[in-house]
Design a protein that fits this description.
three-stranded antiparallel sheet, 6 helices, mainly alpha, 146 residues
């Protein structure tokens, strides 16, 4: 079973993690299980790969897969209105410099009043964890997806 098969299983019951999907995730993805997880053999008599994970690794992977399947509108709805407004403002008004796999942005091109607004929005996104901490050249930044 491939990653696509897992997504196909999810399409039948997308709102909750059912047993067939949980088993598919456990068997066909590499998960970071806790040492005392029931799916890891050896720490108790009733443990091993024939038992379903009870440490939360399958649930975390399911949440990640589910998030990947969300529409942009659904992803935006997961954030407060101020964060979405700040994300849009930065996206529209701050200059972009695309490099391979990255989209750097800067406040350099803004006038003084707009720069203050931009800094406020940038701080909102930084507080929400949507700005990469790695500081770039001259204060350039990378905005993560919503």
């Amino acid at each position: 079973m491939t990653h696509q098969n897992i997504i196909d299983c999810m399409s039948k019951c997308p709102d909750f993690l059912d047993f067939p999907t949980a088993w598919a995730i456990q068997r066909h993805t590499s998960l970071a299980h806790d040492a005392k997880c029931s799916s890891i053999a050896g720490h108790r008599p009733m443990s091993g790969p024939h038992f379903l994970c009870d440490c939360g690794a399958v649930l975390k992977e399911w949440e990640r897969i589910k998030k990947d399947r969300m529409t942009p509108t659904e992803r935006r709805a997961r954030h407060p209105e101020a964060v979405v407004e700040a994300w849009d403002w930065i996206d529209i008004y701050c200059r972009h410099w695309a490099t391979t796999g990255r989209d750097w942005q800067t406040l350099d091109n803004l006038t003084s009043p707009m720069r203050r607004v931009g800094e406020r929005h940038l701080n909102t996104l930084r507080t929400a964890g949507l700005i990469e901490d790695d500081t770039g050249f001259r204060g350039n930044f990378i905005k993560r997806a919503l």
